[in-house]
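ligand=NAP
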Amino acid sequence: MIGATGTVGQRLVRRLHDHPWFRLTALAASSRSEGKRYGDAVHWLLPTALPDSVAEMEVRDIREIDDCDVVFSALGSSTAREVEPLLAQRGLMVVSNASALRMHPRVPLLIPEVNSDHLDMLDHQNFGSGGIVTNPNCSTVGLVLSLKPLADAFGIEAVQVTTLQAISGAGHPGVPSLDILGNTLPLIPGEEEKLETEPQKLLGTTADGVFSPARFPVSAQTNRVPVVDGHLVSVSVKLGRAASAEEARSVIEDFRSPVADLDLPSAPLRPVVAVDEGPRPQPKLDADRENGMTVTVGRIRDCPVFDLRYVALVHNTERGAAGAAVLNAELLAAAGRLGGANRRTT
Ligand code: NAP
């Protein structure tokens, strides 16, 4: 794993140290951490204890990583842009959280329950004998998992989304406490652009190595709020075929994962659920649903401007980051795209 000491890296460590398919073999981070015990290098932020076996591992240089079947990357974008292609050139499969290569014309941007067929794009990549797959921006995952049942049933014509995003989305140490406590920051640099472009790639099609993005516009406004984990997205949608709030609720409720038969260990039973009760979903009450892997949708109503409006909640560091990456690696393994039966992990 590279970027192993960060906010996302720690959650990857927690998910991978006792994973039924993968074995954690190496941890790497910046030169600040290189050569240290992981337990000394990391500022562990999770409520569960850091496993002793992981604490004793030595943090390595990210460029040294070579002997493994899959590399989980939780690097910042500029480092990822430089390092991930180098690792793929070495024959490694890189599963990345970073935004650097998400919109690359040959790199799949994956949510297994939405577009597992985009894995075909790996056959058209030119990163040597390895490959790169990416998971979406943390708010995009919540938006797209909630849109997917609606897109299948009614089509999507336009989307307007406003986010209330947790501070863990900014990494550690992230936003200074005096800037965010008792406050809201109505700008998250680069975030609106991701929300306005990634959904169309995810809900688009691929053929012969070419992506055809879905053709609906997204208008996004993003806000940082003093919440630890869990991004809320308030969504208004213009549908291809008008539908009532009841019909929308029913297609969201009926949605089941199209890859359920693969029995991927990190896949939730239901990737998206609808809740009825009053002021829900809430980060405190709903972010951890199914180990943080289920998106919760509530307040589904008719919209006087578009057709439909609702609120969705995604656990930004699990379904929006670490859990998303592990699920993508499981999909790669199930599709036979990782080497060997002994699935070693870096
Ligand atoms: P973070 O807490 O800042 O962690 C960054 C990690 O990268 C640390 O392990 C750090 O190591 C390492 N690193 C920094 N500079 C490096 C360099 N020059 N060379 C090698 N390693 C370096 O960030 P994060 O929140 O975990 O995010 C990681 C990635 O996931 C980012 O691309 C982010 O955009 C993406 N992402 C985050 C979220 C979220 O909710 N947080 C959601 C989706 C996607 P040191 O400890 O040694 O400095």
